[in-house]
Design a protein that fits this description.
CATH class of the largest domain: Alpha Beta
Distance between the termini: 14 Å
CATH architecture of the largest domain: 3-Layer(aba) Sandwich
Largest sheet: 6 strands, parallel
CATH superfamily of the largest domain: HAD superfamily/HAD-like
CATH topology of the largest domain: Rossmann fold
Strand content: 5-15%
Shape: globular
Helix content: 40-55%
Strand order of the largest sheet: 3-2-1-4-5-6
Number of helices: 10
Number of domains: 2
Radius of gyration: 17 Å
Structural class: alpha/beta
Order of helices and strands: EHHHHHEHEHHEHEEH
Length: about 230
Amino acid sequence: MGRDGIDALFIDFYGTIAAGDRAAVEATCQHIVQTLELPMTAPAFAVMWGERFFATIDASNHDDFRMLHDCETISLAETLSEFGLDVDPHPLVGILDEYWHDPPMHADVLHLFETLDLPICCVSNADTIPLRSALEKLGLSFAAVITSEDARCYKPDPAIFAMALDALGVDASRVMHVGDSVHSDVNGARSAGITAIWLRRDERIHDVGRSSPDHTISSLAELPDLLGR
C-alpha cells in the first residue's frame, strides 16, 4: 500500500488512546487476591483471569453476544471457581468499572489529532455508555465511534470492522487500524483485510495474540510518518 493510499484511520481506545488499563487491572487483581486470600500473586491471577476473559469474549459474539461488563464478571466467577470459591464477582470489579468511565489519556494522543487530516473511527471492545463517558471527559471526538455493543461482537471478529467501514464509507484496502492488542486489534484488522498497526507500548496489558502486524510502532507520534501525513 502506498503512503498516499489511506482514506481513513481506525483506532482502538483502551490501552491505545486511554492509559492506565494495566494499572486498573493490576489494582483490581490485588484487591481480589487480598480480599479472598488467594494462594497466588496478583500478577499471576491477572494472567489467569485474562486468558479466561479473552476466551469469554471470543465466545460472546452475534447471537451469543454479552456486554463487556458481563464478560468481565462471568470470566472472573469462572476463574474463582477454580479455587473452589462461589462468590458474587460484581463487588470485586469496582476499580475496573470506574476506569472504563474515566481513564487518563496517553500523552501522545493530542499530537496525533492535531497532525492527521484523515477521518478517524474509534473501534473499541467496550460497552457504549462507559466509552462515550470517557470520550466526553477527555474531550475527544471522532468521525465515527463503533463499540462491541453496537456491533454485537468483539474484535477480532471482522464484523465490527465491517461496521466501521460502512460508517465512514471506505474500503478495507485503504484503511489502517492501530491498537495495542495483538489478539484483538492485529488479528481483527487482518481478518477484515485492513492493514494492522501494532502499538507496542511498554506498559501494555497481558495479551494472548499470535498474529503478525503489518507495522509495529511504540508511540502514536510515529503514525503521521507511517501514514504519509
